Structures
1.
Amino acid sequence: MVYYIYNTKITSMKSKKVVLSLFLIVQIVVLQILSFFPEFIERYYSNGLYPIVSKISRTLFGWIPFSIGDVVYFVVIFMILRWFVLNRKTWKTEWKSNLLMVVSGISIFYFLFHLLWATNYHRVPLFEKMHIEREYNDADLMAFTQKLIVKTNEIHSKLEKTDSIKITNPYSQELIFEMTLNGYHNLGKEYPFFKYDDPSIKKSLISLPLTYMGFGGYLNPFTNEAQVNDKLPMYNFPFTVCHEMAHQIGYASESEANFIGFLSTVKNKDLYFQYAGYSYALKYCLRNWRIQDEKIFEELKKKIRPGILKNYEESDAFWLQYNTPIEDGFKVFYDNFLKMNKQEEGLESYSKFVNLMVNYYKEKEL
């Protein structure tokens, strides 16, 4: 009788693993089909299920002063490593069962990842939602870059009378988390679909590893916490926070999160936030010119206050000191991850927000 019960349990466990493994295939197929219907995802997931799930997660975890998501990752990684150690001697004798267990785990992860956040990768693009043109020419980029130079110089001069001194943000990181709400509040009045409520913004417990991986932050899709690398240069810290908050409100695309992060910083009443946004946008435009035409790039640099360029040097020096093969490996991984999730440019999708900015401001003043 005992043997029968034990054998029944074993059979039941195998059946569950088989079902979960097959469910992974079903999920992948269904998601690929749904990706051809962004309007459906926009209506029923991004503006239907996701806001409810996001609100619940941020209400549950937002008040906790440390990152629950990072703790969950620590526990999960420990359990996975423990399982591999305990089953290291059974990989030859029970390889089918062990393989099914691994695939079952991936199936559960894949389901939760897309249920709780990642289906937003397949929503209607902001280009369409905000009726912004996709392409621009060199004349458009030049006009926008020159407007950015004037505006960034202006903000820098208000914060620092001496043009050769870099900007140092005087606020604490905790205060910046609170102040970001002002920019999103102003942005939400103009565009209700950018409305942000129930803040859940945390300094990541794994900031040092994130730095070595080359990341300024990330959104934990399972707890909906905006995780920010607390080692970043402070002058640009507000922009990174606003970028991760854009992911929280359901914009998975890196270029769109950059664009929303830019809008929410420049619409903030605080000059340090505005400086973070304008200087970040200008740096990306200069990067584009440097790739296209080194001579034009050098001419544009001459028009920029030296203090702004010193902030750029500060940022470059920060990342350079943590540059290792680890970063290169993670960037290859993340580049392919983005490509698998409808961001064909991979890591280059971060810079695609220049397209959004140039065409958004074509008929607008900064």
2.
Amino acid sequence: MQEFIESGRIVDAILAIIVAQVAVLHVLRVHRGIGPGALAPLPSLAAGAALLLALRGALTGGSWLAILAWLTLAFAAHLIDLHRRWPRR
């Protein structure tokens, strides 16, 4: 388990789950007409994925600049998500 985490493969597994989640949402929307479209939760999922990639960089000895880039992208996606969810008057 330690190797699974330290190698960053745990992040790869979680990212695969996120991709599967988007696929399931898409299938439910297209074939059953239920749930949000696959793009609706995209900013939230993108923020989470970017945070995971920053974690992967930290676990595997990535450069601080790459980690900073992923964190900046996560913050931008988070702001987009907040803007989309903010109530309109």
3.
Amino acid sequence: DRNSLPQLGIHVEKMRYSGRDGCNNISGGVIELDKQLIRFGISAGTRMMCEDMTIPDQFNATLPEVRSWEIHENDLQFLDADGREVMQLHKID
């Protein structure tokens, strides 16, 4: 089910992000963004309890760890402060 997968839209001109964590809608500010670095602010979101919260909990715990990004074809990779991949998202639109 596509709605159970995290989805993230980054609105560069507004320095905001929005999407779904796999269960709840989320949104927040982008603190830092350039051709290599990105930092997400604290997210606000709905508070529904889904049957399996494993993916939403992992997504929400990982987002604050993101410090940089890379694009490889249709995949957006988020890296932590040590340059390790902590999340990979696939372009869907």
